[in-house]
Each structure stands twice: as structure tokens, then as C-alpha cells.
Amino acid sequence: MENKEIKILLAAPRGFCAGVVRAIDIVEKVLEKYGSPVYVRHEIVHNKHVVDDLKKKGAIFVEELSEIKDKSRPVIFSAHGVPKTVPIEAQNEKMFYVDATCPLVTKVHREAERHNKNGNKVILVGHKNHPEVIGTMGQIPKENIILVETVNDANNLQLKEPVAYVTQTTLSIDDTKEIIEVLKKKFPNIKSPVKEDICYATTNRQDAVKQIAPKCEMFFVIGSENSSNSKRLVEVAKKAGCNKSILVTSNQNLPLNEITECNKIGLTSGASAPEKLVQDFINEIKKYASVSIEEFIGIEENVTFKLPVSVNQK
Q: Which domains does the chain have, with CATH numbers?
């Protein structure tokens, strides 16, 4: 087993996107500036490793503001975005809050508001109960926004025009395209986003997987169970031709017997997974086989987002 040679095809870009980097930076900067504890509403990003690390530094994670006993401490809203009711509740309680919503999610919020203001019923393509979807649906009156998850949902819509659509930022590009085609057929005058809602990082990571997956016997995506973009990467790898595509949440659950039977495996990580987890995975395989790594570089990413003013002020 020791001398077995495995080639790892490593996808790039992978891992943290600009929105995740910004959200983690916000929590760390607020902790630095105000000391601990600092409260965070919902997991700042969907990764246990990141959340545990921030807990050690003094962040306390809650699901609702009502759980916060000491209202004098800062509270941060997660990168997924929140319904409008949340900042209003924070203001009513006179809480100091910092919104770490990814700017690309905020763009979708503003689009939904604009379409609503212009008298359109808004269709949101996304996954029910995902925090980003809850946040987007909470930007406008609930009777004016309808969630569509599948092609079937789109076919069954009973709506009168004028209508517009927006999408969750972390969806599968191909699946979403099929749903949008149905919507456009059904509503010839439907208003589309000015610029694609699925974010650049989701698109780039899925494109990289499409290049690599057909060449592999197994494909691994490092990410969390509740991470939408990570789960989509697994689906994309399967669709691209690698049936044995698996989401890996920790090294404890690696199918090492299967891995060591492979000559080539693919590897990437979701937008909220730290690079350390990728290296841990590679080091684990190295214990059982001789490993060579080939990195497939798709698009070079150089996107960064500014931090909120309230965090940067001394």
C-alpha cells in the first residue's frame, strides 16, 4: 500500500472567496477593537473549522438576536445576509451591529427591492431554508416574492406579468440555466438581473471542477454539510463525469481503501473552506501512498471587498 502512486488533480481557484475573507476579517477586527465577547448572528460562513476558530477568539454564535443577554456588546450579521426585520430589531434594542453580508448578496437584495418598487412580482431561484434565501425573501413584502427551486416549480408557476427573477448566489450554473429557460418561455417579458446573480467565485470553482472531474476516478470537495456552494461542487463533479464525488467535512471520514485503489483523484474546496483543510487532506493521503500534485489553474481571482467603515475606524 505504501508504494501506491496517486496523482491529485488540484482545482484552482478553490477555497475562500472575497465575501468569506471579508466576513471573517470583520469578526476578527471587531474582536480586536471591542474585545470579547462579540456576538455573531448565524454561522459567519458555513464552515465548522472557521466557526470554531472564531469561538476560541471570543465570538459567540446565536441564531436570533433575542438570545443575546448583554445588548451592549457588538453583534455581526453573517455573510449570507439577513431579512430587513433583523437590523430593525437591533436598532429597537439599541444594539451596535456590523453587517457582514457579502456585497454580491447585497446586490441581489437591491435588485429584488428595485423590481418590487417597479411593480414586478419577484421570482427567487434558490434553496428553501438556506439563510441567503431567507435574507433575500425578507427584503420585500412576502406576498410579492415567490421561491422556485426546480424546473418543475417553474413550470407550475401561476403568475401574471409583470415579473422579474433573481437568484441565490451559490447555485449550480447549469441547473439554474434550465430553470431560467423555463421562466423565459413562460414569461416572455420577464426582467433579468443586469449582471448574473450567481457570484464569480461560484462560477469559477464550478468551471475548474468541470475541467478536472472527467479525468478522475474519485473527486473530493472539502466543505461543510450546510454549505450550498460546496454541495453544488459535488453535483457539478458528478454531472461532469465523476460518479464517485464526495463531500469531505473532516479527515476522520475519508474512504482510504477506495482512495488507495485510484490512480487519479480530484480535489477542490468550497468558498468557505480554509486552505489548511486541503493541505490536511493531502497530508493524510501521503501517509498511505506516494502523491504527486498537478494544479489546474482556471481563472486567476483578484477580487477584494472593502470592510465597513465602522470596523476600520480607530
A: 5-16+200-297 (3.40.1010.20), 18-102 (3.40.50.11270), 104-186 (3.40.1010.20)
Decide if 47 contacts 96 (C-beta within 8 A): no
- CB 116: neighbour CB atoms within 10 A? 17
Segment 183-208, tens digit of pLDDT: 999 999 999 998 889 999 999 999 99
Q: Which residues contact 130 (CB under 8 A, 6 or more apart)?
A: 80, 168, 228
Long-range contacts of residues 53-57, Cβ cutoff 8 Å, at least 24 apart? 54/24, 54/27, 54/28, 57/27, 57/28, 57/31
Cβ proximity of 245 and 172 under 8 Å:
no
Say if residue 83 is preceded by a cis peptide, omega within 30 of 0: no
Q: Which residue has the cell 449550480?
A: 172
Cα Rg of the chain, angstroms: 21
In the β-sheet with 38-41, what is the strand arrangement from edge to edge?
59-62, 38-41, 75-77, 97-99
Catalytic residue chosen out of the listed positions 67, 132, 149, 161: 132
C-alpha cell at 212: 478536472
Q: Quick one: DSSP state of residue 209?
A: H
* CA pair distance 136, 126, nearest whole angstrom: 10
Catalytic, 181? Answer no
Q: pLDDT of 99-157, one tens digit each?
A: 999 999 999 999 999 999 999 999 999 999 999 999 999 999 999 999 999 999 999 99
Count of CB atoms within 10 A of residue 67's CB? 11
**Residue 155, H or E segment:** helix 151-155
- Helix crossing, 18-34 with 48-57: angle to 10°? 10
